[in-house]
Specification:
This protein has 279 residues and is an alpha/beta fold. It has a single domain (6-277), classed as Vaccinia Virus protein VP39 (Rossmann fold), CATH 3.40.50. It is 39% helix and 19% strand. The longest helix has 17 residues, at 13-29. The chain is globular and about 45 Å long.
């Protein structure tokens, strides 16, 4: 299915969590002199304009970056994310929001490499126009799961794989588990970050259990819900990180209370940070 467009949801509270974790991992990878590869399975359009009809239709960015832009929280993992957003909005007004590909491009060093897959023809065209001519960036109009098979392991032997599907169909949940297991076999040293929505608690927990039972060591769960589970729609989102940086758990334990205070809507929001499988 190709109906999903991330441009309608860019910058929302789920993006705040996803992109904060993504950037924290990239900054950790940069601590070594060796190059790394960033692989994005569902790249979207690359970056987004706040004034666009898509972002204004539902105004979801107002629940996320709209509440944070221009702030200094004193928490490194949040402030480095906000500093990156500010670098795209030098007028002091929130005009642009980066997708995960643009975040990777802005954060990487000249020695690091980016490979992006996106199947939707309109989003691929935008992605290609925005990032396709950048050095050490390759953009492919390709199915996400085929891209994982074709491009892993990277020649650098280290890096981050971001898996961020739309979950338009329930089959996505099973596909993620199977594809992750196969990709991890080929790139066992890589860091894998899987985003998931919290739509219905029992289904979310079943998905988490299936990942935890997939046979991979060292899996960290990071989840933030801005509403209680009883609310309808997406009440929160999370990240499962395989082979997380040893600093990530502590970083998010510091960040999540602050994000909860700034982003939660009313009473009943929550967050989870837990080691799913042993190191």
């Amino acid at each position: 299915m190709l109906s999903y467009r991330h441009s309608y949801h860019a910058g929302n509270f789920a993006d705040v969590l996803k992109h904060s974790v993504q950037l924290a991992i990239i900054e950790y990878l940069k601590k070594k002199d060796k190059p790394f590869c960033y692989h994005d399975t569902h790249s979207g359009a690359g970056g987004y304009v706040i004034a666009s009809s898509e972002m204004q239709k539902n105004g979801e960015y107002q629940s996320g970056i709209g509440k944070l832009f221009g702030r200094k929280t004193g928490v490194d993992v949040i402030d480095q994310y906000l500093d990156l957003i500010s670098s795209l909005n030098t007028s002091g007004r929130l005009n642009n929001y980066p997708g995960s590909p643009q975040i990777a491009l802005l954060a990487k060093r000249v020695i690091d490499r980016v490979q992006l897959t996106e199947l939707h023809p309109a989003d691929f065209a935008r992605l290609q126009k925005m990032l396709g001519k950048q050095k050490k960036v390759k953009v492919y109009q390709q199915d996400a799961w085929q891209g994982l098979k074709a491009m892993l392991p990277p020649v650098e032997k280290r890096g981050l794989v971001l898996i961020d599907p739309s979950y338009e169909v329930k089959q996505d949940y099973k596909t993620i588990v199977a594809s992750l297991k196969e990709a991890h076999k080929r790139f066992s040293a890589g860091i894998f970050a899987i985003w998931y929505p919290v739509l219905e608690r029992s289904a979310t927990e079943q998905f988490i259990r299936s990942l935890a039972q997939a046979g991979m060591r060292n899996m960290l769960r990071i989840e933030h819900c801005i509403l209680p589970d009883t609310e309808q729609g997406m009440t929160g989102s999370g990240m499962i990180v395989v082979n997380p940086p040893y600093t990530l758990k502590a970083d998010m334990e510091e960040a999540q209370p602050v994000l909860s205070k700034l982003l939660n809507e009313g009473e009943g929001g929550s967050f989870i940070i837990e080691q799913l499988t042993k190191e």
